[in-house]
C-alpha cells in the first residue's frame, strides 16, 4: 500500500545507548540524549536523517521549508502549493517528559507458556517442565476447536492457540517489545499461526517450532515422532514463514532444538544441517546451562561430549546466529568455545531467580567478548516486560558477589589492571545504562541485526517506543489538607503510572526513575519499521 | 461524626492467610478463601461477624432480614419500615475476579526519601547514605517556603515537605498499604506534618523522628545538635502525635535511632529510657546488620559490645516492640538474643538487592521463632509497593541457596528431621503464600498488632483492600485478524493491568497471578478501620 506521506518526522527528545566498539569496556556505557527532529522514510522504515538543531518551532519550520516538507495533518502551517513532499509529524511532549527510545528486543520468550505466567510454585527447571510447561504446550496441538482461519491465519490451528498467541503479541508490544525470538510448540499449524499473527500485528519476530524427539526425556503426550519428524516439521514451518514474508523483512524462522536432553543425536545433526542449507544460514536458538541438575543430566546423556556447549558444537548448532538462553553455569572452557563461535547469549534474570537457577555472570561474559542480550523467558520468567528484565539484570548483578559460584568457581575476570585472579569488588554490577544497552543494542546483536536495530543511528530501522513519564508536580499543588476541592493529589499531579517526578531530577535520573518505577503505562506508542503497532488506549 | 449506617456488609470473596500458632512450620502456610458476607461496625471499624452461607442473593436477603438490616443505598430492595438497622453494602464482583484481602503492612519505609525512588546508581549502604540520602532528607528542615498549615497541618513545615509526604501517603495507600512504619527526618515540624497527613488521609502509621547525633558519622549539615536534642526533639513529636490522636487509634509515635553508627551512647541510652517511660512502652525502630561494611563499622565504634544486636540491647532498645530492619548478616548469637527479647525483623528484599547488601535468611529466622514482616525500605528499595516486596521475598529466597553465607556462615537450620548441620535444599524458599503471610499477618505481628490486623478474624480491625483481577477472556473473543472491528484484543478482553486470566486457573493460581503480575491497577479500594481511604479513579 502506498503511504500517504513520504516521511514521518519525529520531534522531541531521543534517548539511546551509543554503539560500542567491541574493545570498549561495557562498564562505561552511557545514555545519549538528543533533541530535535529525526525522519524515517515510509518506503523502508529506516532513519534517513536527523537535525539536532531543530529544537524550537522556528528552526523546525526552517527545517521543513529547507526540505520542501509539508505536514499532511496541517498543510497550512508551513504553506502548501502542491509540490512539497508530504510528511507526518509525531511529537514527543517535553512538558509530559516524553522521549523516544529504541524498541526492546526480547531474545528469549516461550509464547505458548503465556497462560502460565506467574505459575511456577517453588519448582526448579526439570520438575517445572514436567508439572507446568509440557502440559500447557501440549494443548496447542488440539484439533481446531472452532472453524478458525482467515486469509491471513492458518485454518488448522486451534482457536485457543490463536487467542493465546494473539494476546502474547499484544502484551509484548504494549511493553515496548518490537522484536522477539519466540519458542512456539512442536505443532506446525499453531507455530505458523504465531508467525502470521506477528506478521499481521507488525511485530518483528523469529519463530521457532520446538524440536524434542528424545523419548527418554520427553513425555509421550508431547514429543516429535522421530528425528526425521523434528526436521521435516521444522522445514514445513520454514516454508510457511518464507511464504508469508519471502524476504524475511519482519518475520523469520529460527531452528529450535528445545535443549540437549530433549533431542536425539540424529535430530541435533539434522537440525544443524537444516540451518546450514540456507544462505545466509538460519538462526538457531536453544537453552544452555540453566540449572545444575540439567548440566549433570547433559553430562550423563552425552558422555562423549567435552561439555554442554560442546554437544551443540558437535552438531554445528553453535554459530554466530545461535541464541543460547541462560548460560548461568558455564565453565571457562565453554565460554571460550562460545566466544570462538561467536554464539550469542540471552540473559534471563527474572526466570533464573524465579526457578532458583542461579545468577549468570554477565560481566564475565561481556569482559570475555561474548554478546549478551536480555530475555523474559516467559513463563519461567513471570513477566513479558523487557523493562522488568532490565531491572532484574541490575538487581541480580548486585547479588552476584554474594554467590559461591562468583567467589569460588573460576568466574575470574579479565581486569583492566591486568589481574585475573581476584574479582574487583563491585565490577560485576550492571548499571541501569548497561541494562538498557543489553535490552536494545545487546539484543540487536544477539539476533544478528546490530546494524539495523537497537539505536537511532542513521540508516537503522525505526523500531521504537515513545515513553511518557508524565508531568512534574508543581510546588503550587498543595497537599490534600491544604486544598478546598478535596481531590486526591495523584489525580491532579499528572504522573503516569508509578513514575513520580519532583522537578529536581536530571534527565539521566528521569531515565533511572523510568527503569525502576515504570511499566507499560509509560509506553505511549510503539513502532516497528516505521509502522505504528501499538498505542496506549 | 456519626455514621449514617451502623454496619458495612462486604459481600463476595475473602482471601487471607490463617493465623499460625508459633509452633507451626511456616512452610505449611496456606491461603484461605471464604465466600459470603462479612460485616464491620461503623463505630469501631472492627469485624463483628460473617456468614459464609450467604453466597447467593436469596440467602443474602435472608441474612439481611434476619438481622433487621436495610441497605441505605437501596432501602426498597429489602423492605423498609424505619425500624431496621441501616447498613451499607460493598460488593466484590465474582465475574471481575474481585476479592477482599487484608491491607498490606509496610514495616520499614523512609517517607522523605520518596523523591529518590529509583536513584541509587551502583552504590552500597554507606556511600548511598552520603550521596543520595542525607542530602534529600536535610531538605525537610528548610524554612517554611510558603505560608503553609491549616487547622490540620503544622504551619511550620516547608510546603515542599508537605507535598512529598502527601504523595507518599497517597502512593502507599494506592498500593494497598494500610499501615506503615515511617522513618521521617530529624526535623520536628516536618515529622509532625507526616503524622497529620497520615491521620487526615486515614492511613495507620507509626511516625518516627530520626535520631542521629554522632558527629563522627553524621554530616554537619544534617544531624541532631546533641544527645539531649535527640531525646527532647523526639519527645516533642511524641507530644504532637499524642495530641493529634490521644488513644493512638490510627497514628502512633515510634522511637527511631537511625542506626548505631549515627548515635552516641548517651543518645541511645536516652532513647531507650524515653521508650520505657510510657505504658505500654513506645515502639522502637532502627536498622541492623544490613551490609558487611556497616557491621565492621559498628564493631569498630562499639568495641565494648559483643555484637551489633548487643549494642541496642545494652541501651534497652531491643524490646518486643522493636522493629529491626534488614537483618541480613546476623550471627547465630545475635539471632538468639533477638529471639529472647522477642524483637521483630523487617525483611526488605528489594532494598537488599538494589544496594547489593545480600539476602536475609528468612527461613532460618522463622524456624528459630523470630517474627518477620516485609518492608519496602523506600528509597533503598525502589518501590513503595509491598506486593513488590512480597515478589522480591520469593525471588531472593530462591537465590539464597547459591550464596556463600547460606552455604558457609552458620545459617544452619533447625530441621524437622532433627539434623541441624546441613540445610535441606529448597527449604529456604518462600512460597507465594508465605510471602503474603509476611505482608499481612507477619507485618501485624512486627508492629505488635497481631490480634488486630493482618486477617479477617472476628474482632479484627477492617484494614483491607479490594483486589480486582479482571474478567477471563472468553473463547469467543477472536484474535485481531479474525475480527472485523479491528480493535486490539487488550481492550476487549477486560484484564486489569497485567493480570491475564484464561479461565483454567484455580483460585489459588489466580492469587499467584496477582502476586507475580499485579500492581496498583488491581487495587480497586482500600479501607482502614472501616473507612474508605483510597479508591481507584
Automatic annotation (TrEMBL), chains A, B:
Keywords recorded for this protein, A-Z: Hydrolase, Metal-binding, Zinc
Any single GO CC term annotated in Swiss-Prot or TrEMBL for this entry: cytosol
Any one GO BP annotation for this protein: guanine metabolic process
Required cofactor names: Zn(2+)
Superkingdom field: Eukaryota
Catalyzed reactions per annotation: guanine + H2O + H(+) = xanthine + NH4(+)
InterPro entries hit by this protein: Amidohydro-rel, Metal-dep_hydrolase_composite, Metal_Hydrolase, Metallo-dep_hydrolases
Pfam families (UniProt xref): Amidohydro_1
Sequence ranges assigned to domain Amidohydrolase-related in this UniProt record: 101-533
The keyword Transmembrane helix belongs to this UniProt entry's keyword annotation: no
Stretch forming the signal peptide: none
Protein's pathway: Purine metabolism; guanine degradation; xanthine from guanine: step 1/1
Protein EC: 3.5.4.3
Gene Ontology molecular function, alphabetical: guanine deaminase activity; zinc ion binding
Similarity comment: Belongs to the metallo-dependent hydrolases superfamily. ATZ/TRZ family.
Function of the molecule: Catalyzes the hydrolytic deamination of guanine, producing xanthine and ammonia.
Protein name: Probable guanine deaminase
Organism this protein belongs to: Penicillium subrubescens
Organism taxonomic ancestry: Eukaryota, Fungi, Dikarya, Ascomycota, Pezizomycotina
